[in-house]
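User: I'm putting together a teaching handout on how multi-component assemblies are represented. Below are the sequence lines for each component of a complex, exactly as they appear in our records. Could you produce the 3D structure of the whole assembly as structure tokens, so the students can see both representations side by side? Please keep the chain order the same as the input.
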Amino acid sequence: MSNLFHQKSLNLLSEQLTEKGIDTSELISKIAQFQIAVPSWALGAGGTRFGRFSIGGEPRNLEEKLEDIGLLAQLTKRTDAVSLHIPWDIPQDTEAVKQKAASLGIGFDAMNSNTFQDYGQPLSYKMGSLSNADAAVRKQAVEHNLQVIEIGKSLGSKGLTVWLADGSNFPGQAHFRKALQWTTDSLKEIYSGMPSDWKLLLEYKPYEPNFYHTVIPDWGTSGLICRQLGDRAKVLVDLGHHLPNTNIEQIVATLMHQDLLAGFHFNDSKYGDDDLSTGSIKPYQLFLIFCELIGGAEEGAQAWDSISWMIDASHNTKDPLEDLIQALEAISQAYAKALLVDREKLNQCQNEGDVVAAQEVLQEAFLTDVRPLVREARIQSGGEGGPLAFYRKEKIREKLIAKRGRSSQASGL
Amino acid sequence: MSNLFHQKSLNLLSEQLTEKGIDTSELISKIAQFQIAVPSWALGAGGTRFGRFSIGGEPRNLEEKLEDIGLLAQLTKRTDAVSLHIPWDIPQDTEAVKQKAASLGIGFDAMNSNTFQDYGQPLSYKMGSLSNADAAVRKQAVEHNLQVIEIGKSLGSKGLTVWLADGSNFPGQAHFRKALQWTTDSLKEIYSGMPSDWKLLLEYKPYEPNFYHTVIPDWGTSGLICRQLGDRAKVLVDLGHHLPNTNIEQIVATLMHQDLLAGFHFNDSKYGDDDLSTGSIKPYQLFLIFCELIGGAEEGAQAWDSISWMIDASHNTKDPLEDLIQALEAISQAYAKALLVDREKLNQCQNEGDVVAAQEVLQEAFLTDVRPLVREARIQSGGEGGPLAFYRKEKIREKLIAKRGRSSQASGL
Amino acid sequence: MSNLFHQKSLNLLSEQLTEKGIDTSELISKIAQFQIAVPSWALGAGGTRFGRFSIGGEPRNLEEKLEDIGLLAQLTKRTDAVSLHIPWDIPQDTEAVKQKAASLGIGFDAMNSNTFQDYGQPLSYKMGSLSNADAAVRKQAVEHNLQVIEIGKSLGSKGLTVWLADGSNFPGQAHFRKALQWTTDSLKEIYSGMPSDWKLLLEYKPYEPNFYHTVIPDWGTSGLICRQLGDRAKVLVDLGHHLPNTNIEQIVATLMHQDLLAGFHFNDSKYGDDDLSTGSIKPYQLFLIFCELIGGAEEGAQAWDSISWMIDASHNTKDPLEDLIQALEAISQAYAKALLVDREKLNQCQNEGDVVAAQEVLQEAFLTDVRPLVREARIQSGGEGGPLAFYRKEKIREKLIAKRGRSSQASGL
Amino acid sequence: MSNLFHQKSLNLLSEQLTEKGIDTSELISKIAQFQIAVPSWALGAGGTRFGRFSIGGEPRNLEEKLEDIGLLAQLTKRTDAVSLHIPWDIPQDTEAVKQKAASLGIGFDAMNSNTFQDYGQPLSYKMGSLSNADAAVRKQAVEHNLQVIEIGKSLGSKGLTVWLADGSNFPGQAHFRKALQWTTDSLKEIYSGMPSDWKLLLEYKPYEPNFYHTVIPDWGTSGLICRQLGDRAKVLVDLGHHLPNTNIEQIVATLMHQDLLAGFHFNDSKYGDDDLSTGSIKPYQLFLIFCELIGGAEEGAQAWDSISWMIDASHNTKDPLEDLIQALEAISQAYAKALLVDREKLNQCQNEGDVVAAQEVLQEAFLTDVRPLVREARIQSGGEGGPLAFYRKEKIREKLIAKRGRSSQASGL
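Assistant: Of course. Below is the structure of the complete assembly, with chains in the same order as your input.
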């Protein structure tokens, strides 16, 4: 989009919004302030159990991961933090890493532990970690999480995200109730090892890598555990972690209703945990989720600032940086559209049972082309008007390949 | 099966079980004691939104419904109670109904309220009942439930089952959090109107008849509400009320872990709430559910006697009485097989991570032909060895048609 | 939207499109020409197996149904034909009906037969119709379809739509291969009874009202049968007739690739055959479907004019006329957005494996606010700028209730 | 099970079957003759995208894979062939491999090509292989398949199995119709390179490793391509390659109806392509599939001998050899139970619309404990009565670890 059309479109939209009593500059300011963390493992090519195709120029260490996120931040102004994964991202020199991050304007979002793989630790996680029938394995897994907390503390992180792959592949393999109890007990130990200004973000997922049962399959189980841990334990929603046809926006509302929403792992999917680019498959669902988020915060269910935002996708076919630029844009659009919803009118429709008009209110917001607002927010923040075009024009991937090599592989997955 | 083969099979099975240390007569006694309630609406032909095909000879009133269940009880000895639905089953003469039921050996299981249809009440439930944005509608729905409790008290029932169809068909139609709160508040009023020896059984269902959202879509939401009501409010599991691929046996375990399982609505399904005959589609799942039930009770998670058992199917193509005979048999078989599981060995396999052997333990029980045990339990209780064959030989449906007419239609759905 | 903003928005959009080499007036003309048929049964309130809530003022006979569609045509200019259902819409006076329709500018789209219900015919369809094991039932069902063709001929229709509910509820009930063969044979008789300028539109549906198997569950089976009938038999796609997560746009492409796409039944759904308003749940999917349709037609796979368009939704909570206005708008928007896709650039991206840019091409079109184009097309055709607002301002439903009564019920479902 | 009880159970079952007119020895003979191939990649531990847990003692080369299958054959007498995967199993010395296989009584089932990974070939398959927009990549992929045919010819194989991972992750990435046409054209070249006594087995799969679309997602597309190739191209059914709730047994019947069923990849699943042990999750579905197979063959739809049988599971938590023993047992049981179905009576029920009795016929067979028959078939063939017990008693895995090492990893996935 040329600058000329950007300005014209923005002006016309602004004119229309003003007529509706919406302050465009306030809107742009909100969009500009909304920041989404990026995980360290999202900077390399992902893969499936059937293989992986390299992208080239992938970051070879933590420092290069920070550089990639710094670049994203500079171009998009939509991200200001990285989420590290231990053991993949154990810093060699903590101070150097902190300084590098600070120089790039990047903070440290929630830390991620890993008890779903064997990477040289004494006891195997093949039969589970926090839920393992063997107390020694549970102890090892707890200690790993405590170590992750320590690393996070040293970097200035304020949260621990636990995704538990524990579960079973066959009926009879696991004792459902014991596994749940052991997991709860293990998490209690981890929770009590967290500083008082940290929060624990507990994921749920119905299947994969276990295909009969997972210990924390749904928000109900995650919430049940969090309630036993304490107020700073909340439920993390990964958009891909649901059974077919799940109404995710309702889960978001139900969690906010209980002040129990930890935050998001954004991605998109058609089948399961496909980890596709956010907004690429079901953009209307993403918009409806943001409608619930804004409504829940405005109506006092749960504070907006208490929610964590992160992208978690697997870049199997796209350049990860381009994919992240697209995802940040899609999230910003969904947020901007949800901000346009006339909530007063919507409430009135709901009270009157005017289903047709309620749909019109949502459609009015969703159908609006908000790209001028998102672009303006980015420009005003000092980012690029068209970050993807800039990335390509500057041949950034080519430069990264020249520097890091064609066959470099990001550490981790 | 001839009596000769029944005896031979029973003897051989008994011999094998004895060698494993299992007391066959105790087993038979447990099977004989297990009783499953039948709802009053299951005695007529069901239908879909596309139509309904009559079966003929359907009960025309409450008394005839009791007679049908009395017949079922006599033939199968697996059912001893009816679950009534108000307003479909409002007794004209309570004492007469009680006497009729008593004479047939039939008790009154949990009562069912209906706030999902308009049947002449002043305010419409089109936009919901307990969750309606209009306080007057909520009040009416609460009062209906209180009236159902009164009727139940007069008959000797000890429970109220609430299936709430409330929800929305379109994004924007309902306010998720308000709907949930209003529902909780309404249920609090109903709960406080229940006698102290009653329990409230709260269903969940992800969709249908609303197709965008339902107010109580999953066990987590049902449990959340129950926790706010009190100890006598628990979650009812209808086997058809789940999203595709849900691990239902795990939900059963999770609910028992919290002493939160109210009971079951048994049926089977391939797609959604298909309401097919229990055990006709996924018999192994039914077995696994009973494994959890027995394990949870034996290990002290929740008392067996605190759980309610009911069939809830829709007989669209079969004679309802034949369908119920098949369902009662399938449930008894699943229960009997689950009783055969060597739980000690299973626990050992789980502790040792011996997945292959754990599967063998379950398969050993499931593959056993337990029909001699179920048949013997029925015979010892005074029922028919082959109730379905008896029903056909005696031409019972033909007699019912002769008596009640070919186009009689069961009251209700 | 005020007229002022409509004009401003249209001008700016037109300016932008012109710069991209797109002729706005041609675009508007295409949108204006696109007409979608409405079925006669969509004019009354729908329902589920759990009940039905009346809307009031529903058309009481075929003439009133025509009047409702005439009104829709007048307001929206997006529909010009009705699709009748026999026996619900058997005309009493064919000539009068034709004249009424002609006076309203309404033609007769494909006829719909009904062999899924018992409505007084000699033999029951409980165990199936075209696939029934009893040859006499199959004969009756074939003859019903032939009668529908006769009625259609008298009205000027040019097609027969067959939705076959046949199937089974339980394993063992039906003989899969025989049922398929009998259905094929029955359809051959029907096909040979069609005039040479008619087409047969054959639906598929995986489940409901049968819940174990349906005789024509997927496009593959429908296509297999059509191939045995002849060139004028093609596969009809109802958007709600798919298993969870099905990629419907790919099915559309695959059918066009074989010149085998009969047309559409538009609606939307979250779970199954929910029959919600088109575009209310998955607008991006609808857009992607139109991308395939336009691409397939432009690239010569199948001619655009050979495809039939119809809405088929169930209006359980909305005023049917308002619902149809929303659906016609949503379909027009999806079509307009798909027309904006830069297909040349998309093809180039596909050839070069530029996945990121391919997504941008689609997003560029989808994110554009095309409402000014759709509105302008409507206005230029003589319709209302805002048909929904007009409908409400004119209190049309209230007038219909006054005329037809509050408890009128549309004939049929 | 002790030998004593085996004999007693077999005698009683035989007595019962004789009374029904079933010849037990013929039954045992059929079970004994039924052989299922094992793929070379199933002998090592599988994994997910999140990691892999070694089992130890995995075969390090083709010879050791043959040895493992030879062991399976010796213990179970249910498998007599291996299915190789190229490039993972390119024989170094073809004659030596053939001799080794012959000495173990193992033949060579269908060959498997691999165009879903990059393993050093000049052009990448990242954007597809047989469907790639680049003709050079398509040519490379065709030539790979032709090379696989050559290797297969040298070993005595008679078939080529093509599982095509081609597809796309994002809307817009692929051109559906072109991808389908290119795939068809590529397969024509491969088909014409096959010897005249070979068959081509073409798989379908709805998703994974591509998560938006796959080129051959369903049986309809696979069948469409096969029809264009020739009579020796048929559709392969992998039990895990379906959308949720698919009626697989119906697909089997529909394919046999067209003489279009190539064969099976046996496994089981709860969510997607979980690749769990056959029979571990849905044993009743497996039984129903065998009912269709036997019915289709007996009634002349497609010859039994024209169908290929193979296990294709991923052994993530079990010892692969133990897993395969369990799978072979489960398949044998399902087959044996299906052989017990009283098909004449079932047909009668179907003709009379006696749904209840039809279910009883299937249940009568499914509920029968056929383990004595399967065990006897194994013993009579010279296998072990209890192969799993034998395997453990003889500490075979321990011996393999001692010989091959704890960290050996099977070549391939």
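A couple of points students might notice: Chain C touches chain A through 35 residues (CB under 8 Å). Residues 3-404 of chain C form a domain with the TIM Barrel fold (CATH 3.20.20.150).
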